[in-house]
Amino acid sequence: MLSRTLAVALGTFRESVRDRLFYLVGAFGVVLVGATTVLSPLTVGAQGKIVADVGLAGMALLGLLVVLLVGASLVRKEMEQRTITTVLTKPVGRGEYLLGKYLGLSLTLACIIGLMGVLYVVAVWLTPAELAWSHLVAVYLTWLELLVLTAGAVFFSFVAGNALAAGLAAALFVIGHLLRSLHDFAAMSTGPGRALAALAYRVLPDLEVFNVRAAVVHGDPVTAGQVALATLYGVGWIAVFLLLSRVVFARKEL
Amino acid sequence: MGRGALVSLAAIALALVAGLSALGADLRAAARPDHADERLYLPDGRFLRLASLGFPAPAADYTWLQAVQYYGGYRRGEHDLRYFDGLVEAVTTLDPEFEDAYVFSALVHCLDANDQRGAVDVLKRGLVALPDSWRLHFEIGFIHYVFTGEFGVASRWFALAAEQPGASDFCRRFAAWSAGRDGDLLGSLYLWENLRRTTENPDMRDLAGRMVDSLRARLSDEPGSDPTSTPKGANP
Amino acid sequence: MATPARELTRNTPPTAALAVAGLRKSYRRGFLGRRGEPAVADLSFTVAAGEIFALLGHNGAGKTTTIKAILDLVRPERGSITIGGRDARRPEARLQVGYLPEHPSFHENLTAAELLDFFGKLLGLDRTVRRRQVAECLERVGMAEHAARRLGRCSKGMRQRVGLAQALLGDPRLLILDEPQSGLDPVGRRLVRDLLLDLKREGRTVVFSSHIVPDVAAVADRVATLRQGRLVDLRDLRERPAATAYRVVVAAPADPDVAGELRRDPSCTLRHHDPHRWTLETVGAGPLAALLARCDQAGLAVHDVVTLASDLEDTVLADLVGDAQVREVPAC
Fold it and tell me: What ipTM is given for this predicted complex?
């Protein structure tokens, strides 16, 4: 079981390499250089902060781009191009296939975020700001957030078309970050809006759990317990989306 | 995979959602209150405008939500209002025609910061972008009427508001009323009379008619009477 | 699942490489739409180990749906399918199965060798076995020299060959080929035909679908003819070969002896004659060869040889003919 899942994962990874997804790391480099050379001089004394802010945000947004472009069509593209039929007629279960595809893209994201992380650390190190372990925690949690979004995108791709799935994943990203405001909004408003906001608050992942960017930039401590709980939360949501995907996938006819 | 297995997978997923919802609530509760000082670093609106990549209006909306959140935090006693102005300024630089932002900010200035000058400045800044806005004119008049008691100034702003396109009838009522309170009985009479002739609201016409009668009576009976003796307890 | 289907499965001989019992499948229109006419209904057949079994029918007869149900790509509403005695819905059942889709489509970024290596991993082959088998399979379909070519740059014929190669990977006991000869040039068709016969010689079981009667008649041991999703004919070509009729147009014989001989020959019929041409009809490949040999001996020029419908073809075409007859009824 594991070997087949790994084979699918590595195949997916190789495909993303050939699709030149890693060019995004280059784009990130440009963003960082821009942040250090163009923006920093404009901000008197806050160079380190700007590099860290722009770096962490750029990493998250470029990663989101991968999720929307690749995650939302991960399995669907294979169904549309019928490349999936030959794979599934090998002794591969649909669950193994799904998990393999997901792990493959997770690996791709890990490499992309990892490389961006290296560039980021170098860029922060070049500024007067202090480089702390918490910067790496922020990078890790960014990756984890992208994994949750990928799982969501994969699920959406089973229930909607490619473009709509990408849109839903983007909406998940936006709502996931506004969830706390949504809660306040629910408390204030009345009527169907209130019920809807309250429901969304209950059944959608709160992506702010993975957002320690501000804390890191301001040098606030990020505790190991906090990271562990965030990890648990992230893995839980990934499991939810993949289980639901598995259920819908079982009903798909190819 | 059989139907039963699928149903149990779905059930596990739903149970997980319930568990995660609880965990999420715990995490939120444990989260430190918002980084108030994050606002310290709120970039200048002009930079934000560039950074919004051609979508300044949504960026303004988002920043506006932040501003309202921040005000909410202040009302709950979590922090002071130090960065409120910066947020509003960012909003109005991103979207200079964001009328609500000016009005809300002015009210916060008056009510929470007791800074009426600041409030009027904010609204005047709004007038640069929205010179036709009756609401901004009206709010300036309102601040003079309610907070500083400068009825003459208020009356002139209310009258200006009434001249703007789409202005509500009550602008003229406020103008007439505050002119009266300022002691300018003739001015007030003129404004009430004008309102009575032109309003389409029968209640308003009725009220204006009564005010015109009462003012006429006072002007003919006691030419030198105290202008502040308009019926007590009545408000525009 | 219906009980009779289970019974059927249980009663099939242990040698059955594939058993389909009471299969029924109709597709939904839209996501939650109603099911339409069944693509396959009440289909049962078993394939013995080592035989070449053909599914014959025109487009839309239910061949591909049957194959997809066997491979668990679509979910049947009723019926059971076992591969080598195992429930076809279990992935392990496909360990011994090689499949060629009708229009094979592969990741364009991979080379032929990489693709096969990937499939080898899915089959659980270890590295050395994988390397050897990938080379062997590519060699066998004539793709060895293009092993390092990206699939995106392969012609349609080459992709079909790669498809065959991946079906052969893992030494499968059962091969399921959906229209293996479609879209191939004559050389390719010949290659597929020879390959099918080779596979049979190696003791493998082959199930393939086709809409071309001569392709089926040339290699199949048994043929199941499908029409509108139902089995209309199941025959063993080894016992009752498909008899194909041929029409031969030759120059009119000048020699009255030759002419008399041809007229009297029981294996051919003179359908039409004029001072220049004779049109003869004969049934079966043997008599055709004998007829052509005789014409050659007599020095008669052969102008044309036309394949006429076989009785197998008649079965496939029956519904079309039926339609035509219906249409001929006066509308009164």
Answer: 0.83
